[in-house]
């Protein structure tokens, strides 16, 4: 376990004096889960900085992941905060934890939710707006060259073994992509998928495939999500499209993934001011994508990236905190 080292300089601490001591008494010890992917790591360290410097909390960051962290929060009451929880298949257990007054859904970590879909480079849509639609793509199938078969066009899906592999296979059938001349291609790995986008973008080539936000790739390369013309049928998506035995898949856009900040009831009760901050803290995907791209390009860890975020997005984080806390955070930066 790592103890954060984000402390006020001695002169700042002396200047704040009694108000900081009062905040520390109110907040006390707080543990935050680092959920082991970049956006969650960033939020964990942003929360640590703000809670320590703005509210005088004594913060510890602990390793985390979806299932073990959720289970530990429900059964053991620790850690206190999971900053970015993709509730997905764990929703039933979380709902029970809330009903049993062990947990709280504090607020949405990502304002837009997780954003999955099929994407094309923006420069294609700039040249031909029809390429932002699946019908426009089918009408221009020859643009999307297959690297190994000149008689076919390529749609790049998920690596084998990922949950989204099933979604893409079913949507590929639902949208009759094979009849249009496309072949569903396995990128082999996450790096292969990201690399394919980067290679096509840097060469100005046509590319069509699956990706998600928040992600560094969508922060680095401007992509447009393809409109299936279907709207979102959430019931069919979860009842059929996500299932390997979906016999009659129908077109539907991906529903936004629900992503929440989860806290324990004990933290919310003992530290209402700090808890209120967590309820306010939410980031749009376009902002998160850009920060993740910066993290990747600079090989920045969560602590360094948190400082970068706070220094460059005061207009955002200052709306999450009180004026007094904002001044303390600015002084610490």
TrEMBL record:
<protein>
    <submittedName>
        <fullName>Glycine betaine ABC transporter substrate-binding protein</fullName>
    </submittedName>
</protein>
<feature type="signal peptide">
    <location>
        <begin position="1"/>
        <end position="23"/>
    </location>
</feature>
<keyword id="KW-0732">Signal</keyword>
<dbReference type="Pfam" id="PF04069">
    <property type="entry name" value="OpuAC"/>
</dbReference>
<dbReference type="InterPro" id="IPR007210">
    <property type="entry name" value="ABC_Gly_betaine_transp_sub-bd"/>
</dbReference>
<feature type="domain" description="ABC-type glycine betaine transport system substrate-binding">
    <location>
        <begin position="29"/>
        <end position="312"/>
    </location>
</feature>
